[in-house]
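ugh ok so i messed up the first submission bc i forgot one of the chains. this is the corrected input, ALL of the components this time, i swear. 546 residues overall. if the numbers dont match what u have on ur side tell me asap before i send this to the collaborators (the ones from the other lab, u know who)
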Amino acid sequence: MLKATGLTKTYDNVKALDDVSFEIKQGDITGFLGPNGAGKTTTLRILTGYMIPDSGEITYNDKSLEPNSKEILGSIGYLPEENPLYGNLRVDEFLTYTAKIKNAYDLKELKEIADKCGLESVMTKTIDTLSKGFKQRVGFAKTLIGNPKFLIMDEPTEGLDPNQKEEILKLIKEIAKDKTIIFSSHVLSEVRQIANNVIIINRGKIVAQGNSDKLILKHFKNSLVTLRTDAPITKLNQELKKVKTVFAVDRKSKDRAKFSEYAITCSNPEETSLEIFKAISKNRWHLIELHSQSQGLEELFKELTK
Amino acid sequence: MKNVINITIKELKDYFISPIAYVVIAVFVVVVGILFAKDLFLNNQANIRPFFEIVPSILIIVIPSLTMRSWAEEKREGTLEIISTLPVSKVELILSKFISCLLFVVFLILLTFPIPLTLNLLGSPDNGVIVAGYIGLILISASYVTIGQFISINTQNQIVAFILSAIIIAVLYLFGEPQFLQVVPISLRSIFEALGLGAHFRSVARGVIDSRDILYYLSIIIILFYFINKSFERIRRKGS
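and heres the new structure output, hopefully the right one now
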């Protein structure tokens, strides 16, 4: 388990982190979200021991990072922001160097990692001559050396084209089985795709953390169901009053063919949609369109980082 | 220790990959060779002394050109974040950077070995003095390296690191020089003489390996190691 307690960091009298605390359980994939400048990189740098916080503590499996940094850093794979690499080294030299320092030099394992990351064809090439996609793979391969228990990645897909992004995300999912992963991103679709938990940070403070579905439910009690039907407003109102999940029925517009567009505010869009369908069917009204708009991670992010 | 060896090897490779290293090697060997040969033929004496008078001054320019990149480049390229987040202690990292640079300088110094060989062919110089002189060169080089690396860790621009290091080393070198001491008040002369990098070197190069001189160079190295470590901590506090 990775635990951060009361992290505070100030740069030039500006609080970059203000009493940041969170826990990441073994085996979780956690998306670390926040707008630019919210404190994501600072937090991840503190987690990896690169940066010293003004106050606060980091523990990995109940061991404090600072006095045990050498031992703990051996169990962390870290991909920093912008993926800095020793550009003058060849890919195989760089991976071997990292493996030796991690005391995990095993040619077979290195080959497996290179294969997994699709680096076989560029192993003897100088890193500086590689494309951005390959460089990102090299950085990613480096994080996997020594089979680390914790993976910390700062915007791992930044600057990649959609196909490369897809590949990296697939790779993260593949290796996630026995690892604890935290990765920062501001691409919410990526987070939704692979993370089971999220931490949202804004202006140096954690504004939400936990399972993303539960967080959405907690923050957005009301959802919206829209429909186009020829049901009269009074009768539709009467029918839907009986449904516990419905809070309000509003008519948005009416067209020449007597069809109206309604907006139903409710707590559970799926259950409400089913009840609407039953009412329409019972009264033999006509239904042209039924659309439930449940709130997602995007709305949650916007709401919390305003 | 394993980490120190691995990082030192990588750093040494970096020196030999870099074209600057070859320029430095070529310039050093040619300049030292010409100046020595000129002196040898003018005086017609198989004397090593002029050689040991020239080399420390040339190293004032040579060593900063090697140390300027050691930390500044890692900071600029962001690779300091890679190495700092691997299981390497800060002391191991500082030590590796120092050893690799010093080894490169020792390699450079060893390239001058044909000079004492030539002297031995032409006459019979005091080989004890030659050995002491080489020990002195390594000691003074080690202090130049720590000064250069201290400046390098505190700057992001390699050119700034080079110029500042060369100036600081030159000033410290001059402190013990007789010409400088003449303009210093008498009461302060002994202090400046004790601080001068060159004065201690001359003492060793005379063939007298005095513990005070060794202690002086070791003190410079240890004190600057401490400040490099402090600068590293400052970077970790600032994050860049």
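quick check: The interface with chain B takes residues 11, 42, 45, 48-52, 69-71, 73-74, 76, 78, 80, 82, 84-89, 97-98, 100-103, 142 of chain A (CB under 8 Å). that seems consistent at least. The mean pLDDT of chain A is 88.
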